[in-house]
Write a structure and sequence with these properties.
Oligomer: single chain
CATH architecture of the largest domain: 2-Layer Sandwich
Strand content: 15-25%
Helix content: 40-55%
Structural class: alpha+beta
Number of domains: 2
Largest sheet: 5 strands, mixed
CATH topology of the largest domain: Beta-lactamase Inhibitory Protein, Chain:B, domain 1
Radius of gyration: 32 Å
Length: 169
């Protein structure tokens, strides 16, 4: 005669039930966790709205560019590089962006001589010292600015920040 298995409630079975019980009962969030989740949901919603606003702005800019006749687009950047700023002048002279200027910014290299930078980018819209280092600032109408920082020691290019060309080219 074969006897079936019988469950006996001993320490090992009780321990197993206690270990598995939390998996069967839905976990409750603390008030702090709920507040954090609500805050994150609000932030995600706001970021989505900002993304949609920026997408509409980009669409508008692209539509204006597309509506510009090709002949007019070709002449948009036909101006000379900006003149050097005067020490007493706080306003930055703005240059018009051209495909050549974009390429010239790509050609910048660490250790480049200042004269080579001037040949590539033209005279800066403004130049100043920052922590004893020379900085040349270039401003482009409708795009924004970029800067080139020169080393205190040898006066060569130390670093640079390109203008935000990605919005236009």
């Amino acid at each position: 005669m074969h006897r079936g298995l019988r469950w006996r409630w001993g320490p090992s079975v009780t321990g197993a039930v206690l270990l598995l019980l939390p998996l069967c009962v839905p976990a409750q969030q603390s008030q702090g966790e709920a507040d954090d989740q609500a805050s994150l949901q609000t932030e995600v919603h706001e970021l989505r709205q900002e993304l949609q606003r920026l997408q509409r702005r980009l669409d508008s800019i692209e539509a204006r560019i597309a509506a510009t006749p090709p002949a007019a687009r070709a002449t948009l950047g036909a101006t000379a590089p900006p003149a050097a700023s005067r020490p007493d002048d706080d306003s930055a002279a703005a240059a018009t962006l051209t495909p050549q200027i974009v390429e010239n910014w790509e050609a910048l290299r660490e250790g480049m001589e200042p004269q080579r930078v001037r040949t590539l980018l033209g005279a800066p819209s403004r130049d100043f010292k920052l922590g004893g280092q020379a900085v040349w600032y270039y401003h482009y109408t409708g795009v924004g600015g970029g800067s080139v920082m020169f080393s205190r020691g040898d006066g060569k290019v130390l670093s640079w920040q390109r203008p935000p060309f990605h919005a236009w080219w």
